[in-house]
Amino acid sequence: MAVKIDKKIKGYAVITPEDKAREQTPAQAADRPAEAKDNVIQMHERIERPEVLVGCTYKIKSPLMEHAMYVTINDIVLNAGTEHELRRPFEVFINSKSMEHFQWIVALTRIMSAVFRKGGDVTFLVEEMKAVFDPRGGYFKAGGVYMPSLVAEIGAVVEEHMKSIGLIHDPEMSAHQKALIAEKRRQYEERSRKEAGTAEDIAVTGDGTSFPPSATMCHKCSTKALVIMDGCATCLNCGYSKCG
């Protein structure tokens, strides 16, 4: 709708949603639902550390280190006891008997803790850490999952923790996808049994899932579960398939 202005414009101002909210009458404010009046606490740098925090400790056993590494992630619970209750990472500690990585581990934990306490969307840390590659080469951890570096495995631990507290939601495979993977697996085992006379030895991974030892790494899920079937590369873990 066009509006004709007959007078000279002497000034202007942009009305924001906050300005409109302040202009509401008391009656209009009373009509708003109770949820809108709740004082929801968001994560920010001014939140003081409570005396007690809940957390989890994860063990990393990498072939790049002589001793195991233990990653502890402590969480703060915001709006406890309300429908807006939220658990967020607050600080991280990494401990190990190996001292050759001490300096950069301390620096990494302090930076990560500072990012956690700043608030906002902190899930970006996972992708940034998992994208770090070791120039000497990566390794396969228990379960046949490829880790390009030690930092990447720490990022995988942070991702696992964020999934457990609900910050990251991993889309589950549909029943059709699971059935397709199970069928492909059955076909592969039957073919191996016919060709070799016996079924190929199955290696059980750290997650309780078994894949053939001859499987190669899948570029989609970074797991050693890719087998060749009927001229197509098929992943028995995520269902990825490529022919030709």
Task: Set down the secondary structure blueprint.
Layout (H helix, E strand, L loop, with lengths): L16 H6 L3 H6 L22 E7 L8 E10 L7 E11 L5 H17 L5 H7 L8 E3 L3 E3 L2 H16 L9 H22 L6 E2 L5 E2 L4 E2 L6 E6 L2 E4 L5 E3 L1
Antiparallel strand pairs: 1-2, 2-3, 4-5, 6-7, 8-9, 9-10, 10-11
Helix pairs in contact: 4-5
State the end-to-end distance: 58 Å
How are the strands of the biggest sheet laid out side by side?
8-9-10-11
Helix fraction bin: 25-40%
Strand content: 15-25%
- The run of helices and strands is HHEEEHHEEHHEEEEEE
Return Rg in Å: 26 Å
Overall tally of domains: 2
Q: Report the uncertain regions.
A: 202-208
Number of helices: 6
Largest sheet properties: 4 strands, antiparallel
- Total DSSP E strands: 11
Q: Give the overall shape, derived from the CA principal axes.
A: extended
Q: What integer is the average pLDDT?
A: 81
The secondary structure category is: alpha+beta
Quaternary state of this entry equals single chain
Your description of this structure?
The chain is of the alpha+beta class. The protein has 2 domains: 54-165; 175-243, no CATH class. It is 30% helix and 22% strand. It has 6 helices and 11 strands. The chain has helices at residues 17-22, 26-31, 102-118, 124-130, 150-165, 175-196, and strands spanning 54-60, 69-78, 86-96, 139-141, 145-147, 203-204, 210-211, 216-217, 224-229, 232-235, 241-243. The strands form 4 sheets. A 4-stranded antiparallel beta sheet has the order 8-9-10-11, with helices on one face. Strands 1-2-3 form a 3-stranded antiparallel beta sheet. It has a two-stranded antiparallel ribbon with strand order 4-5. Helix 4 (124-130) runs antiparallel to helix 5. The relative contact order is 0.09.
